[in-house]
Design goal:
alpha/beta, globular, six-stranded parallel β-sheet, six-stranded mixed β-sheet, single chain
């Protein structure tokens, strides 16, 4: 703990205590473990108004409910946030795969009522676990099919489609009393760099940005989204110097001024290299609040008490030095507390809708696109499932299982599976499969030359191979049967396996 922090909190000064409490209030930190650490409880008592849950904090819904109960015993209006998009990015179902298809599958169906029903059931589950703030939905327009981090997290490539489903998703989730956080402003869809690693750049003119990237955010604002998350992307047409998270032009002038948004502005994870590797974590946090952000997302990687204290002290020091206006920090903290108060009221007023546990599978089945080559025979005997594994992006992570193997083994007892990657994958599958029918499961075939080559090898030798695409279906359909799921959620795998057997 630095001298500044000791002085601020220990001097007996009401102004100093208020400043320290405001600095803690704008932080949304993560922590380790599946129970509430003592340091988190202590900092809640000192002004911390939010915490964030990640996959490492989740074992079961019952455990999450107990964890949030421990936390809320310290502060009833504590914001408990989670990065639960459903689909490929899931924390609640991190060890099993999501019970809900993701955005791209919902966009493929293009039924806003279905999207609203899916997000309402997700919200009901989150609320039952004591989670009050969801860093979702993604409102990014998938303008670049080679985007390494968005992909199936987007509803689609049409601004109008993304706008209507973003609005429906927000409405469904918030009807349960859980605050939505529409992301990644001003739009992460047309990037070819993952901001977890570096600063992405969107080089299009302002007219294109206004016509393509902004309509979904306008729709989310009209639908009443309680929060919007900034993107760590450089958009020279808007601000040639600073990425969105640190740009006053983007957060204050555009989002607040031009779009009229009055809710909470949250940053994307500040440990991401786009910020921490360019500006430094502490300085980046100060710049973000100064630019107009109200809450700091941190904890996906750095989840210790020391990080929270360093960021608190950096904000206090920035106010003391005049770098950060005290009223800007106070305004940010007030917006966090306003959202916390909303969640308490919304929890009491939420629609008491009955559970609809099958809605995710219903949606996944509706999303399937099945393409047959001639008279494709269904798979009726034990099969060999070859799963081609690309390197996972950080947002998705590597904890969550995906594919069709488990469900096919249930439907066709005796089926087996293997995972393959890289050069020679096709030949390795042929050797492993022997005489069994092959079901090849791919993810973004169009982005991986080795995956495309492996399918070439398989289909040349075994034209009766079934291909299941669980990423963006950009490559032309091929195989005796081609099934596009528009995402790799568990329910998408269930729906695909049913289609494999049905033929």
């Amino acid at each position: 703990m630095t001298t500044i922090a000791t002085t601020a909190s220990g001097s007996g000064s009401a102004a100093g205590d208020t400043l320290t409490r405001d600095a803690l209030a704008v932080l949304q930190p993560g922590f380790d473990g599946t129970t509430a650490p003592d340091w988190v409880r202590r900092r809640i008592g000192e002004g911390l108004a939010s915490v964030a849950l990640f996959g490492r904090n989740v074992v079961s819904e019952e455990q999450v409910t107990a964890l949030t109960g421990q936390l809320r015993a310290e502060r009833d209006d504590l914001l408990v946030a989670i990065d639960e998009e459903s689909g490929d990015v899931t924390r609640l179902d991190v060890r099993t795969g999501s019970s809900f298809p993701g955005n791209h599958a919902l966009g493929a169906v293009d039924d806003p009522d279905l999207t609203r029903a899916v997000s309402r059931e997700l919200g009901r589950r989150l609320a039952a676990c004591g989670v009050t703030f969801d860093w979702a939905p993604s409102a990014d327009v998938n303008a670049n099919a080679d985007n390494p981090v968005i992909g199936v997290r987007s509803f689609g490539a049409s601004p109008g489609l993304v706008a209507r489903h973003t609005a429906a998703w927000v409405e469904g989730l918030q009807s349960t009393g859980v605050a939505a956080c529409t992301k990644h402003f001003p739009g992460h869809g047309d990037t070819n760099v993952d901001s977890h690693h570096a600063v992405p750049r969107i080089d299009v003119d302002a007219d294109t940005l206004y016509a393509r990237e902004l309509p979904p955010f306008r729709a989310a604002i009209a639908a009443g989204t309680r929060a919007i998350m900034s993107a760590h992307i450089l958009v020279p047409a808007l601000d040639p110097e600073r990425p969105g998270t640190l740009s006053r032009r983007i957060l204050t002038e555009l989002l607040r001024g031009e779009l009229g948004y009055q809710g909470l502005i949250v940053t994307d994870g500040m440990e991401m290299r786009a910020i921490s590797g360019t500006y430094g974590l502490e300085h980046g946090v100060v710049l973000a609040i100064a630019a107009g952000a109200d809450a700091i997302c941190v904890g996906g990687g750095l989840c210790d008490e020391g990080t929270v204290l360093k960021l608190r002290d950096a904000l206090v020091a920035a106010v003391r030095s005049g770098e950060l206006p005290e009223e800007r920090l106070a305004d940010a903290a007030a917006r966090v507390r306003d959202l916390a108060a909303w969640t308490v009221a919304a929890r009491d007023d939420a629609e008491k809708t009955p559970a609809d546990p099958e809605i995710g599978l219903v949606a996944a089945r509706r999303a399937l696109t099945v393409t047959r080559a001639g008279a494709a025979a269904p798979v009726t005997a034990p099969a060999y499932v070859a799963q081609f594994n690309p390197a996972p992006n950080i947002a998705v992570g590597d904890q969550t299982p995906w594919g069709v193997a488990a469900e096919l083994e249930r439907l066709l007892p005796g089926s087996s599976a293997g995972s393959f990657t890289g050069e020679g994958a096709g030949a390795a599958v042929l050797a492993a499969a022997e005489d069994r029918r092959i079901v090849a499961v791919v993810r973004d075939e169009h982005r991986h030359d080795w995956m495309r080559s492996a399918l070439d090898t398989l289909l040349a030798a075994r034209p009766d191979t079934v291909v299941v695409e669980m990423g963006l279906p950009q490559a032309p359909p091929r195989g005796a049967l081609h099934i596009a799921t528009y995402g790799a959620a568990r329910v998408c795998g269930v729906a695909a396996a049913e289609a494999v057997v049905a033929g």
